[in-house]
Amino acid sequence: MIEAPHQISLSQWDARYGQLVAGDKEQPLYGGRLSRHVKEGDLRLKRLRFDDSPAALDLWNFLLSENDRLRKAKADGKKLIGVMKDLGTVPVMAYAYPELVAFYPDGAWWIPCVMEGSDGLLDIADRFGLDESFCPVRAMFGAFVDEKHFPIPDRIICSVGAVCDDFSAIAQRIQGIGQSIFWWEIPNRRKPDPKEPFVELPGGFLAPVEQVEFVKGELNRIAAALAELAGHRLTQRMLSDAIARANEIRKCLGELRRLTFTASVCPLPALELLVAEMMAIHYCSDRNEVLAVLSKLLGVVRDRVNEGTGFMDDEAVRVFWVNPVADLRVMNLLEDCGGRLCGTEYLFTHALDRIPTNIPPMEALARMALADPMVGSSSDRAARICRDIQLFGSEAVIVSKIPGASHCSMEGSVIAEKIRMELDLPVIEIEVASVTDSARASLGTRLSALMETVREQRKGAS
């Protein structure tokens, strides 16, 4: 029998860490006490609850040590690629080169949450005209200005076209302060015209062959830029190998999600699953180690499912969550209110889908880029969400709106309405700021009301 899992506080993790070390648990290079990150400014950790498994500790330490890895990579002579907006395509290409390391400066949008505003990044953005009417990703601009959070990349590659207007404006402002950006275009995915040649994309969307060819041409431009930086060209074999490695990670995450969403008792808290999913985008700057971290976590989940142990009980309401939250603490709040995560759509489902291997690798990446839920219509995105809700048996849906984000000002309502019409499930839309402490009570009331609605529906159906 394995030990029943618990969620524990940061101080409890310190005590547990002492036990692990005393038991001679081998620590990875990035290992150590989770509380050490608080001294580096990650204050939000003091208010979160964590899975108590050693695999979860590795997950958190791996996440929170990314900037250290980037600085070491740069010191070792590797070139850093700052990839912006495409969420999952260009990193696959970059990691085909051993000389390159790719990361997403976009991830800075979580810094005001993790550091509880002590970072000052939003204040910097305000001073440069990027005020709170913009998406919280404006924190990325502040990080480029103060240069205290991640090393400045040797090359920045950013997608434009069918992307968030806020992001485009912020990226242009970054170029305006002297950062050179390589721009590439992703077109708005459209439905094929009658009799027009088309292909099926990962995830089930359709796209005209014409659009796939256009994106392939753009990716070839990126390949040339990467070759110039690395000093040698990107071969088809290199790219095929990179796709195979990406698919290993996606397979691991796919199984992790499936087991977590479908188990009778929840085997992994929502917060740790959120962190795990994010690693699909760019491997947290270490493609080899991320697979080791996720594989350990998957092993823990498998053991818990086999033993029937986990968090909450089988009466917990099965919730599908749309859009990532700005404040990580809200994932704990979901569970406080009696819900468990049983399905997610965090804007990057294309980075979770397997990349096709039965077609030329550059075409496969072009199809994957076009499968991005944000480059097509809201109705397309809603249709996939509905399919996934049915697949995972979710009973309610939460759509978390991102303050100021132009890409989801109305999209959330479109998604919510389609779910209500097609699946007849309760849906709520909430807005999640970077730090939600002042709104925690009212937010908790809304989440609790959603859980109670589902429980009442269960009674009516029995």
Question: Care to describe what's here?
Answer:
With 462 residues, the protein is α/β, with parallel strands linked by helices. Helices cover 49% and strands 12% of the residues. It contains 18 helices and twelve strands. The protein has helices at 10-22, 36-39, 54-64, 66-75, 90-94, 111-114, 121-127, 139-146, 165-176, 209-230, 236-262, 270-282, 287-307, 329-336, 361-370, 378-392, 411-423, 440-461, and strands at 7-8, 50-51, 79-84, 100-103, 155-161, 181-186, 198-200, 206-208, 317-322, 339-345, 396-401, 427-431. The chain has a four-stranded parallel β-sheet, with helices on both faces. Strands 10-9-11-12 form a four-stranded parallel β-sheet. The two termini are 34 Å apart.
Give descriptors for this structure:
462 residues, alpha/beta, four-stranded parallel β-sheet, 18 helices, 12 strands, 12% strand, globular
Q: For the CA atoms, what is the radius of gyration?
A: 21 Å
Could you tell me how far the N terminus lies from the C terminus, measured between alpha carbons in angstroms?
34 Å
Query: Taking all residues together, what is the mean pLDDT?
Result: 95
Please provide the ordered H/E string of secondary-structure elements.
EHHEHHEHEHHHEHEEEHHHHEHEHHEHEH
Low-confidence stretches: none
Main sheet: strand order: 4-3-5-6
Per DSSP, what share of the residues sits in E-state strands of 2 or more residues?
5-15%
Largest sheet: 4 strands, parallel
Number of helices: 18
The proportion of residues forming helix, as a percent range, comes to 40-55%
Secondary-structure-derived class: alpha/beta
How would you describe the shape? globular
Oligomeric category: single chain
* Strands, total number: 12
